[in-house]
Amino acid sequence: MSVVRIAPRSGVAFVLQQGQLLRVIDPEGVQVADLLAFNAADVREAISNGRTFDYEETIALTAGNRLWSNRSNPMLAIVEDTAGRHDFLLTPCSEATFRHFYPEQPVHRGCFGNLSEALAPYGVAPDMIPCAFNLFMNVAVAADGRVSVEPPTSRAGDFIVLRAEMDLIVGLTACSAYASNGGSFKPIHYETYGDGARTAGRAGE
Ligand SMILES: [Zn+2]
Question: Which single residue of 68, 85, 107, 148 has CA 20 to 30 Å from 181?
Answer without folding.
Answer: 68
